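Q: Please design a sequence for this.
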């Protein structure tokens, strides 16, 4: 069982820590469509005003990804992390810390629903079951 998350922040800022310009563009558009203000981060230690959500590439999080996910989750930030094939073990470890994770291609396809779940909103227009 993953640790109980702290209360979510009410911020409208979404941090984006993704190296690939193409992937960054796709994710930024989806975040903006949800009414979030996208803040492009170049390093995981950047600490802009409180983020509602952080979307990151596992490699961009660097060698201390678990510490960063723990710190952000403790601050009430929803964390979504994707990685490439072969990084499943690291992604599972981050998921145990409360991040929503996935292999990049599956993550990108499911991103609207992952984001809605992370923000505690209805998924794909369907009311959420309680």
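A: Design:
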């Amino acid at each position: 069982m993953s640790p109980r998350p702290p209360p979510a922040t009410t911020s409208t800022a979404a941090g984006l820590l993704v190296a690939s310009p193409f992937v960054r563009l796709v994710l930024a558009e989806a975040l903006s469509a949800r009414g979030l203000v996208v803040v492009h981060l170049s390093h995981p230690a950047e600490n802009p005003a409180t983020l509602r959500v952080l979307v990151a590439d596992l490699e961009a999080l660097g060698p201390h990804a678990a510490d960063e996910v723990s710190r952000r989750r403790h601050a009430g930030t929803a964390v979504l992390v994707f990685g490439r094939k072969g990084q499943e073990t690291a992604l599972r470890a981050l998921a145990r810390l409360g991040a929503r994770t996935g292999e990049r291609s599956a993550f990108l396809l499911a991103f609207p629903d992952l984001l809605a779940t992370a923000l505690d909103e209805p998924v794909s227009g369907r009311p959420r079951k309680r």
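Q: Thanks. Anything notable?
A: The mean pLDDT is 86. Strands lie at 13-17, 37-40, 53-57, 78-83, 100-103.
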